Amino acid sequence: MAIEEFANCYGARVENTVDAIIDDLRNLGADAIRRVVEWNRNLRDADRALVLALAGIASAVVIKIMEKLLGATAAACFVGLLGGASWALLILAFTECVHLL
């Protein structure tokens, strides 16, 4: 049930359908979500700002970062979660909802 609760929380923040989000989240998995949040928390403020600034204009770079962090399959699921949302919103929503996993 944790993925469903997380999906509802995330969906409310990025305004995407919960069904689509649940599919991507199940494919991604709770451990990968936690790794993304932990990676983000461990960045220095300047590095975090740089990653989020680059994400909007260089998503291919962020995808490569996610591939190194999560692997290629999970990175593809991560990208699917965007659903039109910005990378900054994705990371923020993950961070705000991770406690539900």
Question: Topology of this structure?
Answer:
Blueprint: H1 2-14, H2 18-28, H3 30-42, H4 45-57, H5 59-70, H6 72-80, H7 87-97
Please give a structural write-up.
- The protein is an all-alpha fold and 101 residues long.
- Helices cover 81% and strands 0% of the residues.
- The protein contains 7 helices and no strands.
- The chain has helices spanning 2-14, 18-28, 30-42, 45-57, 59-70, 72-80, 87-97.
- Helix 1 (2-14) crosses helix 2.
- The longest helix has 13 residues, at 2-14.
- It is globular, with a radius of gyration of 12 Å.
- The mean pLDDT is 79.
Which features characterize this protein?
mainly alpha
How many helices? The count is: 7
How do the helices and strands follow one another from N- to C-terminus? HHHHHHH
What low-confidence regions span 5 or more consecutive residues with pLDDT below 50? none
Structural class: mainly alpha
Number of strands: 0
What number is the mean pLDDT? Answer: 79
Q: What about the largest sheet?
A: none
* Strand fraction: under 5%
The geometry reads as: globular
Beginning-to-end CA distance, first to last residue: 9 Å
Helical proportion?
Answer: over 70%
How large is the radius of gyration? 12 Å
Write a brief structural summary:
The protein has 101 residues and is mainly alpha-helical. It contains 7 helices and no strands.
